[in-house]
Amino acid sequence: MIKINKLEIENVKRVKAVKIEPTSSGLTVVGGKNNQGKTSVLDAIAWGLGGNKYRPSQPDREGSVVPPYLHITLSNGLIVERKGKNSDLKVLDPGGQKGGQQLLDSFVEELAIDLPKFMNASNREKANILLQIIGVGGTLYELETKEKEVYNNRRALGQIADQKEKFAKEQPYFTDAPKEPVSASELIRQQQGILARNGENQRKRQRVTQIQAEFEQHGREVVRLTAMLNAAQEKYSQAQNDLAIAQKDALDLIDESTAELESNIQQIDEINRKVRANLDKDKAETDAGDYRQQYETLSTEITAIRKQKTDLLTNANLPLSGLSVEDGELIYNRQKWDNMSGADQLKVSAAIVRKLKPDCGFILLDKLEQMDLETLQEFGQWLEQEGLQAIATRVSTGEECSIIIEDGYVAGQEISTQQPVQQPEAKTWKAGEF
Protein backbone atom coordinates (compact mmCIF):
# COMPACT_ATOMS: atom_id res chain seq x y z
CA MET A 1 0.00 0.00 0.00
CA ILE A 2 1.20 3.49 -0.87
CA LYS A 3 1.45 5.91 2.06
CA ILE A 4 2.66 9.44 2.78
CA ASN A 5 6.23 9.50 4.08
CA LYS A 6 6.85 13.25 4.28
CA LEU A 7 4.84 16.38 3.80
CA GLU A 8 5.92 20.02 3.44
CA ILE A 9 3.36 22.80 3.13
CA GLU A 10 3.91 26.54 2.86
CA ASN A 11 1.50 29.44 2.43
CA VAL A 12 -1.63 27.35 1.82
CA LYS A 13 -4.75 28.88 3.40
CA ARG A 14 -3.83 29.35 7.11
CA VAL A 15 -0.60 27.30 6.93
CA LYS A 16 2.61 29.33 6.95
CA ALA A 17 5.18 26.52 7.02
CA VAL A 18 4.58 22.95 8.19
CA LYS A 19 6.63 19.77 7.89
CA ILE A 20 5.14 16.44 8.90
CA GLU A 21 6.39 12.86 8.81
CA PRO A 22 3.22 10.82 9.50
CA THR A 23 3.49 7.46 11.18
CA SER A 24 3.42 4.74 8.54
CA SER A 25 0.45 2.98 10.15
CA GLY A 26 -1.98 4.16 12.76
CA LEU A 27 -3.15 7.66 13.59
CA THR A 28 -1.22 10.91 13.16
CA VAL A 29 -3.24 13.58 14.98
CA VAL A 30 -2.71 17.21 13.97
CA GLY A 31 -3.85 19.15 17.04
CA GLY A 32 -4.24 22.78 17.95
CA LYS A 33 -6.79 25.42 18.79
CA ASN A 34 -9.37 26.71 16.36
CA ASN A 35 -8.29 28.78 13.33
CA GLN A 36 -4.62 27.75 13.58
CA GLY A 37 -4.36 25.84 10.27
CA LYS A 38 -5.18 22.22 11.14
CA THR A 39 -7.82 21.74 8.44
CA SER A 40 -5.62 23.67 5.99
CA VAL A 41 -3.09 20.83 6.29
CA LEU A 42 -5.66 18.26 5.13
CA ASP A 43 -6.95 20.57 2.40
CA ALA A 44 -3.39 20.98 1.12
CA ILE A 45 -2.85 17.19 0.97
CA ALA A 46 -6.16 16.74 -0.85
CA TRP A 47 -5.18 19.42 -3.36
CA GLY A 48 -1.72 18.01 -3.82
CA LEU A 49 -2.84 14.44 -4.49
CA GLY A 50 -6.43 14.80 -5.67
CA GLY A 51 -5.99 17.45 -8.33
CA ASN A 52 -7.37 20.88 -9.01
CA LYS A 53 -10.93 19.86 -8.21
CA TYR A 54 -9.72 20.00 -4.58
CA ARG A 55 -7.97 23.35 -5.06
CA PRO A 56 -9.19 25.74 -2.30
CA SER A 57 -11.15 28.74 -3.58
CA GLN A 58 -8.45 30.94 -1.99
CA PRO A 59 -5.33 28.76 -1.72
CA ASP A 60 -2.86 31.63 -1.04
CA ARG A 61 -2.31 32.41 2.62
CA GLU A 62 -3.74 35.83 3.42
CA GLY A 63 -1.00 38.44 3.63
CA SER A 64 1.63 36.31 1.89
CA VAL A 65 3.37 37.52 -1.26
CA VAL A 66 4.88 34.07 -1.82
CA PRO A 67 2.76 31.50 -3.73
CA PRO A 68 1.69 28.18 -2.17
CA TYR A 69 4.20 25.37 -2.04
CA LEU A 70 3.46 21.65 -1.58
CA HIS A 71 5.98 18.82 -1.43
CA ILE A 72 4.73 15.28 -0.72
CA THR A 73 6.98 12.21 -0.64
CA LEU A 74 5.13 8.91 -1.04
CA SER A 75 6.23 5.45 0.09
CA ASN A 76 6.51 4.24 -3.53
CA GLY A 77 9.17 6.86 -4.16
CA LEU A 78 7.01 9.35 -6.02
CA ILE A 79 7.51 13.02 -5.22
CA VAL A 80 4.52 15.30 -5.74
CA GLU A 81 5.04 19.07 -5.90
CA ARG A 82 2.90 22.14 -6.49
CA LYS A 83 4.71 25.44 -6.64
CA GLY A 84 5.08 28.60 -8.59
CA LYS A 85 2.64 31.31 -9.51
CA ASN A 86 0.11 28.86 -10.99
CA SER A 87 0.79 26.07 -8.48
CA ASP A 88 1.55 23.69 -11.33
CA LEU A 89 1.67 19.99 -10.54
CA LYS A 90 4.91 18.01 -10.92
CA VAL A 91 5.17 14.28 -10.23
CA LEU A 92 8.60 12.58 -10.28
CA ASP A 93 9.27 8.86 -9.88
CA PRO A 94 12.51 7.53 -8.29
CA GLY A 95 14.05 7.23 -11.75
CA GLY A 96 13.46 10.89 -12.51
CA GLN A 97 10.59 10.23 -14.93
CA LYS A 98 7.80 12.78 -14.88
CA GLY A 99 4.15 11.97 -14.42
CA GLY A 100 0.91 13.81 -13.86
CA GLN A 101 -2.50 13.67 -12.23
CA GLN A 102 -3.42 10.52 -14.14
CA LEU A 103 -0.60 8.66 -12.40
CA LEU A 104 -1.82 9.85 -8.99
CA ASP A 105 -5.41 8.95 -9.80
CA SER A 106 -4.35 5.36 -10.50
CA PHE A 107 -3.76 4.71 -6.79
CA VAL A 108 -5.15 7.68 -4.83
CA GLU A 109 -8.76 6.94 -3.84
CA GLU A 110 -10.96 10.03 -4.03
CA LEU A 111 -12.89 9.11 -0.89
CA ALA A 112 -9.62 8.61 1.02
CA ILE A 113 -8.92 12.34 0.73
CA ASP A 114 -12.60 13.26 0.99
CA LEU A 115 -13.97 10.81 3.57
CA PRO A 116 -16.94 13.07 4.51
CA LYS A 117 -18.26 12.49 0.98
CA PHE A 118 -18.71 8.83 1.92
CA MET A 119 -19.83 9.41 5.51
CA ASN A 120 -22.46 11.98 4.47
CA ALA A 121 -23.86 9.80 1.67
CA SER A 122 -27.26 8.22 2.17
CA ASN A 123 -27.49 4.79 3.77
CA ARG A 124 -28.35 3.21 0.42
CA GLU A 125 -25.46 4.97 -1.35
CA LYS A 126 -23.02 3.64 1.27
CA ALA A 127 -24.44 0.13 0.90
CA ASN A 128 -24.28 0.31 -2.90
CA ILE A 129 -20.60 1.35 -2.79
CA LEU A 130 -19.83 -1.68 -0.62
CA LEU A 131 -21.85 -4.06 -2.79
CA GLN A 132 -20.15 -2.86 -5.96
CA ILE A 133 -16.75 -3.31 -4.33
CA ILE A 134 -17.39 -6.94 -3.38
CA GLY A 135 -19.12 -7.63 -6.71
CA VAL A 136 -22.52 -8.82 -5.47
CA GLY A 137 -24.58 -5.67 -5.98
CA GLY A 138 -26.52 -6.91 -9.01
CA THR A 139 -27.26 -10.35 -7.57
CA LEU A 140 -28.29 -8.92 -4.19
CA TYR A 141 -30.53 -6.35 -5.91
CA GLU A 142 -32.31 -9.13 -7.82
CA LEU A 143 -32.78 -11.16 -4.63
CA GLU A 144 -34.09 -8.13 -2.70
CA THR A 145 -36.47 -7.26 -5.55
CA LYS A 146 -37.77 -10.83 -5.61
CA GLU A 147 -38.05 -10.89 -1.82
CA LYS A 148 -40.01 -7.63 -1.82
CA GLU A 149 -42.37 -8.91 -4.53
CA VAL A 150 -43.01 -12.20 -2.71
CA TYR A 151 -43.33 -10.38 0.61
CA ASN A 152 -45.97 -8.00 -0.80
CA ASN A 153 -47.87 -10.93 -2.33
CA ARG A 154 -47.74 -12.79 0.98
CA ARG A 155 -48.93 -9.73 2.89
CA ALA A 156 -51.87 -9.30 0.50
CA LEU A 157 -52.82 -12.97 0.87
CA GLY A 158 -52.51 -12.73 4.64
CA GLN A 159 -54.79 -9.69 4.72
CA ILE A 160 -57.40 -11.47 2.57
CA ALA A 161 -57.18 -14.59 4.77
CA ASP A 162 -57.65 -12.46 7.90
CA GLN A 163 -60.65 -10.71 6.32
CA LYS A 164 -62.20 -14.06 5.31
CA GLU A 165 -61.66 -15.50 8.79
CA LYS A 166 -63.13 -12.39 10.43
CA PHE A 167 -66.13 -12.50 8.07
CA ALA A 168 -66.66 -16.23 8.78
CA LYS A 169 -66.56 -15.64 12.56
CA GLU A 170 -69.10 -12.83 12.32
CA GLN A 171 -71.57 -14.87 10.25
CA PRO A 172 -74.39 -16.73 12.13
CA TYR A 173 -74.90 -20.44 11.36
CA PHE A 174 -78.36 -22.05 11.31
CA THR A 175 -78.28 -25.80 11.92
CA ASP A 176 -81.98 -26.12 11.01
CA ALA A 177 -81.54 -24.59 7.53
CA PRO A 178 -81.22 -26.78 4.42
CA LYS A 179 -77.93 -26.92 2.50
CA GLU A 180 -79.34 -25.29 -0.64
CA PRO A 181 -81.71 -22.31 -1.08
CA VAL A 182 -85.41 -23.24 -1.23
CA SER A 183 -87.33 -22.64 -4.52
CA ALA A 184 -90.83 -21.13 -4.18
CA SER A 185 -91.93 -22.71 -7.44
CA GLU A 186 -90.88 -26.17 -6.15
CA LEU A 187 -92.92 -25.72 -2.96
CA ILE A 188 -95.92 -24.56 -5.02
CA ARG A 189 -95.52 -27.58 -7.32
CA GLN A 190 -95.52 -29.91 -4.31
CA GLN A 191 -98.62 -28.15 -2.94
CA GLN A 192 -100.43 -28.49 -6.26
CA GLY A 193 -99.58 -32.21 -6.34
CA ILE A 194 -101.11 -32.72 -2.88
CA LEU A 195 -104.20 -30.71 -3.85
CA ALA A 196 -104.56 -32.83 -6.99
CA ARG A 197 -104.37 -36.06 -4.96
CA ASN A 198 -106.85 -34.69 -2.44
CA GLY A 199 -109.20 -33.79 -5.34
CA GLU A 200 -108.97 -37.38 -6.59
CA ASN A 201 -109.88 -38.59 -3.10
CA GLN A 202 -112.84 -36.27 -3.07
CA ARG A 203 -114.01 -37.63 -6.40
CA LYS A 204 -113.79 -41.18 -4.98
CA ARG A 205 -115.87 -40.14 -1.97
CA GLN A 206 -118.45 -38.61 -4.27
CA ARG A 207 -118.55 -41.89 -6.22
CA VAL A 208 -119.36 -43.73 -2.96
CA THR A 209 -122.30 -41.41 -2.45
CA GLN A 210 -123.40 -41.90 -6.05
CA ILE A 211 -123.23 -45.71 -5.84
CA GLN A 212 -125.06 -45.60 -2.49
CA ALA A 213 -127.88 -43.69 -4.17
CA GLU A 214 -128.01 -46.18 -6.98
CA PHE A 215 -128.13 -49.06 -4.47
CA GLU A 216 -131.07 -47.52 -2.70
CA GLN A 217 -132.78 -46.81 -5.95
CA HIS A 218 -132.33 -50.40 -7.07
CA GLY A 219 -133.75 -51.62 -3.75
CA ARG A 220 -136.83 -49.63 -4.35
CA GLU A 221 -136.95 -50.97 -7.82
CA VAL A 222 -136.91 -54.54 -6.40
CA VAL A 223 -140.02 -53.78 -4.33
CA ARG A 224 -141.78 -51.83 -6.99
CA LEU A 225 -140.84 -53.91 -9.93
CA THR A 226 -141.34 -57.44 -8.77
CA ALA A 227 -141.94 -58.36 -12.29
CA MET A 228 -138.49 -57.27 -13.17
CA LEU A 229 -136.92 -58.92 -10.10
CA ASN A 230 -134.50 -61.12 -11.98
CA ALA A 231 -133.10 -58.25 -13.96
CA ALA A 232 -133.06 -55.91 -10.98
CA GLN A 233 -131.47 -58.58 -8.75
CA GLU A 234 -128.63 -58.93 -11.18
CA LYS A 235 -128.05 -55.17 -11.18
CA TYR A 236 -128.36 -55.08 -7.45
CA SER A 237 -125.73 -57.73 -6.98
CA GLN A 238 -123.39 -55.88 -9.30
CA ALA A 239 -123.99 -52.64 -7.51
CA GLN A 240 -123.37 -54.38 -4.18
CA ASN A 241 -120.01 -55.62 -5.43
CA ASP A 242 -119.10 -52.18 -6.72
CA LEU A 243 -120.07 -50.66 -3.40
CA ALA A 244 -117.86 -53.05 -1.47
CA ILE A 245 -114.92 -52.26 -3.70
CA ALA A 246 -115.47 -48.51 -3.47
CA GLN A 247 -115.84 -48.64 0.30
CA LYS A 248 -112.64 -50.63 0.62
CA ASP A 249 -110.79 -48.08 -1.56
CA ALA A 250 -112.08 -45.19 0.50
CA LEU A 251 -111.53 -46.79 3.89
CA ASP A 252 -107.69 -46.22 4.06
CA LEU A 253 -107.63 -42.86 2.34
CA ILE A 254 -105.86 -40.10 4.39
CA ASP A 255 -105.74 -36.50 3.18
CA GLU A 256 -102.22 -34.92 3.18
CA SER A 257 -101.72 -31.60 4.98
CA THR A 258 -100.35 -28.61 3.07
CA ALA A 259 -99.79 -26.63 6.26
CA GLU A 260 -95.99 -27.15 6.34
CA LEU A 261 -95.62 -26.23 2.67
CA GLU A 262 -97.84 -23.19 3.14
CA SER A 263 -95.68 -22.21 6.14
CA ASN A 264 -92.48 -22.78 4.13
CA ILE A 265 -93.85 -20.67 1.27
CA GLN A 266 -94.57 -17.88 3.72
CA GLN A 267 -91.08 -18.23 5.32
CA ILE A 268 -89.08 -18.88 2.13
CA ASP A 269 -87.19 -15.56 2.33
CA GLU A 270 -86.10 -16.26 5.92
CA ILE A 271 -85.10 -19.84 5.08
CA ASN A 272 -83.09 -18.74 2.08
CA ARG A 273 -81.42 -16.00 4.16
CA LYS A 274 -80.22 -18.64 6.59
CA VAL A 275 -79.05 -20.89 3.76
CA ARG A 276 -77.09 -18.07 2.15
CA ALA A 277 -75.56 -17.13 5.51
CA ASN A 278 -74.44 -20.73 6.04
CA LEU A 279 -73.00 -20.91 2.51
CA ASP A 280 -71.14 -17.60 2.99
CA LYS A 281 -69.67 -18.81 6.29
CA ASP A 282 -68.57 -22.14 4.77
CA LYS A 283 -67.02 -20.42 1.74
CA ALA A 284 -65.23 -17.81 3.90
CA GLU A 285 -63.70 -20.56 6.04
CA THR A 286 -62.62 -22.48 2.94
CA ASP A 287 -61.17 -19.34 1.31
CA ALA A 288 -59.35 -18.40 4.52
CA GLY A 289 -57.74 -21.82 4.63
CA ASP A 290 -56.67 -21.57 0.97
CA TYR A 291 -55.16 -18.11 1.43
CA ARG A 292 -53.43 -19.21 4.64
CA GLN A 293 -51.87 -22.13 2.77
CA GLN A 294 -50.64 -19.76 0.03
CA TYR A 295 -49.30 -17.44 2.76
CA GLU A 296 -47.27 -20.27 4.28
CA THR A 297 -45.92 -21.22 0.85
CA LEU A 298 -44.73 -17.66 0.25
CA SER A 299 -43.23 -17.55 3.76
CA THR A 300 -41.12 -20.56 2.86
CA GLU A 301 -40.05 -18.84 -0.38
CA ILE A 302 -39.08 -15.65 1.50
CA THR A 303 -37.01 -17.68 3.97
CA ALA A 304 -35.18 -19.33 1.07
CA ILE A 305 -34.48 -15.95 -0.59
CA ARG A 306 -33.18 -14.48 2.66
CA LYS A 307 -30.88 -17.47 3.09
CA GLN A 308 -29.55 -16.88 -0.42
CA LYS A 309 -28.85 -13.24 0.51
CA THR A 310 -27.13 -14.29 3.74
CA ASP A 311 -25.03 -16.90 1.95
CA LEU A 312 -24.14 -14.37 -0.76
CA LEU A 313 -22.78 -11.86 1.77
CA THR A 314 -21.26 -14.55 4.00
CA ASN A 315 -19.16 -15.83 1.09
CA ALA A 316 -18.27 -12.34 -0.16
CA ASN A 317 -14.86 -10.79 0.44
CA LEU A 318 -16.06 -8.09 2.85
CA PRO A 319 -13.54 -5.43 3.92
CA LEU A 320 -14.43 -5.66 7.62
CA SER A 321 -15.59 -8.50 9.87
CA GLY A 322 -19.14 -7.89 11.07
CA LEU A 323 -19.98 -5.74 8.05
CA SER A 324 -23.05 -6.62 5.99
CA VAL A 325 -25.98 -5.19 4.04
CA GLU A 326 -29.62 -5.64 5.02
CA ASP A 327 -32.58 -4.08 3.23
CA GLY A 328 -30.23 -1.88 1.24
CA GLU A 329 -28.44 -0.43 4.29
CA LEU A 330 -24.99 -0.93 5.79
CA ILE A 331 -24.97 -3.03 8.96
CA TYR A 332 -21.93 -3.33 11.25
CA ASN A 333 -22.11 -5.64 14.26
CA ARG A 334 -25.90 -5.71 13.75
CA GLN A 335 -26.17 -1.90 13.99
CA LYS A 336 -27.36 0.49 11.27
CA TRP A 337 -25.27 3.54 10.44
CA ASP A 338 -27.16 5.97 12.69
CA ASN A 339 -26.78 3.58 15.64
CA MET A 340 -23.03 3.06 15.17
CA SER A 341 -20.57 4.87 17.40
CA GLY A 342 -18.38 7.53 15.82
CA ALA A 343 -15.40 5.17 16.00
CA ASP A 344 -17.32 2.39 14.27
CA GLN A 345 -18.50 4.77 11.55
CA LEU A 346 -14.89 5.73 10.90
CA LYS A 347 -13.79 2.07 10.89
CA VAL A 348 -16.48 1.15 8.37
CA SER A 349 -15.72 4.16 6.19
CA ALA A 350 -11.97 3.58 6.25
CA ALA A 351 -12.32 -0.14 5.51
CA ILE A 352 -14.65 0.42 2.55
CA VAL A 353 -12.58 3.29 1.13
CA ARG A 354 -9.42 1.19 1.36
CA LYS A 355 -11.18 -1.62 -0.50
CA LEU A 356 -12.00 0.75 -3.37
CA LYS A 357 -8.29 1.14 -4.17
CA PRO A 358 -6.19 -1.28 -2.12
CA ASP A 359 -3.00 0.51 -3.18
CA CYS A 360 -4.11 3.68 -1.38
CA GLY A 361 -2.79 3.16 2.17
CA PHE A 362 -3.85 6.47 3.73
CA ILE A 363 -6.96 8.46 4.60
CA LEU A 364 -7.55 12.04 5.75
CA LEU A 365 -9.86 12.73 8.70
CA ASP A 366 -11.04 16.13 9.92
CA LYS A 367 -12.47 17.11 13.31
CA LEU A 368 -11.76 14.06 15.50
CA GLU A 369 -12.59 16.07 18.64
CA GLN A 370 -15.91 14.18 18.66
CA MET A 371 -13.96 11.15 19.98
CA ASP A 372 -12.96 10.77 23.60
CA LEU A 373 -9.40 9.70 24.28
CA GLU A 374 -10.28 6.06 24.85
CA THR A 375 -12.20 5.85 21.58
CA LEU A 376 -9.42 7.70 19.78
CA GLN A 377 -6.86 5.21 21.09
CA GLU A 378 -9.09 2.29 20.10
CA PHE A 379 -9.45 3.67 16.58
CA GLY A 380 -5.69 4.23 16.32
CA GLN A 381 -5.01 0.65 17.37
CA TRP A 382 -7.39 -0.63 14.72
CA LEU A 383 -5.60 1.46 12.06
CA GLU A 384 -2.24 0.01 13.13
CA GLN A 385 -3.66 -3.50 13.05
CA GLU A 386 -4.95 -2.92 9.52
CA GLY A 387 -1.67 -1.29 8.41
CA LEU A 388 -3.60 1.83 7.41
CA GLN A 389 -2.25 5.38 7.71
CA ALA A 390 -4.57 8.18 8.84
CA ILE A 391 -3.78 11.89 9.12
CA ALA A 392 -6.41 13.59 11.23
CA THR A 393 -7.15 16.93 12.88
CA ARG A 394 -8.41 17.52 16.41
CA VAL A 395 -9.15 20.65 18.40
CA SER A 396 -6.81 19.81 21.25
CA THR A 397 -3.30 20.41 22.52
CA GLY A 398 -3.17 17.22 24.57
CA GLU A 399 -0.71 14.36 24.51
CA GLU A 400 -2.86 12.45 22.02
CA CYS A 401 -1.78 14.93 19.33
CA SER A 402 1.24 13.97 17.21
CA ILE A 403 1.95 17.63 16.39
CA ILE A 404 0.43 20.95 17.41
CA ILE A 405 -0.28 23.69 14.89
CA GLU A 406 0.07 27.25 16.19
CA ASP A 407 -0.53 30.22 13.93
CA GLY A 408 0.23 28.21 10.81
CA TYR A 409 3.39 26.53 12.12
CA VAL A 410 4.20 23.27 13.89
CA ALA A 411 4.85 24.16 17.51
CA GLY A 412 8.53 23.66 18.37
CA GLN A 413 9.54 22.88 14.79
CA GLU A 414 12.59 24.48 13.27
CA ILE A 415 11.68 26.35 10.12
CA SER A 416 13.52 25.41 6.95
CA THR A 417 11.57 26.21 3.83
CA GLN A 418 12.09 25.64 0.14
CA GLN A 419 11.29 29.26 -0.62
CA PRO A 420 11.14 32.57 1.26
CA VAL A 421 8.43 32.66 3.85
CA GLN A 422 7.18 35.72 5.67
CA GLN A 423 7.78 35.05 9.33
CA PRO A 424 6.30 36.84 12.30
CA GLU A 425 8.54 39.23 14.19
CA ALA A 426 10.11 38.19 17.50
CA LYS A 427 9.24 34.52 16.83
CA THR A 428 11.66 31.88 18.13
CA TRP A 429 11.49 28.26 16.96
CA LYS A 430 13.01 25.22 18.61
CA ALA A 431 14.06 22.00 16.97
CA GLY A 432 11.71 19.11 17.57
CA GLU A 433 10.76 15.74 16.31
CA PHE A 434 7.87 15.13 13.92
From TrEMBL:
Keyword Plastid recorded: no
GO biological-process terms attached to the record: double-strand break repair
Keywords: Coiled coil
Presence of the UniProt keyword Coiled coil in the record: yes
Annotated Pfam families: AAA_23
GO molecular function: ATP hydrolysis activity
Coiled coil ranges: 222-301
Protein name: Chromosome segregation protein SMC
Occurrences of domain Rad50/SbcC-type AAA (ranges): 6-281
Family matches, as Gene3D superfamilies: P-loop containing nucleotide triphosphate hydrolases
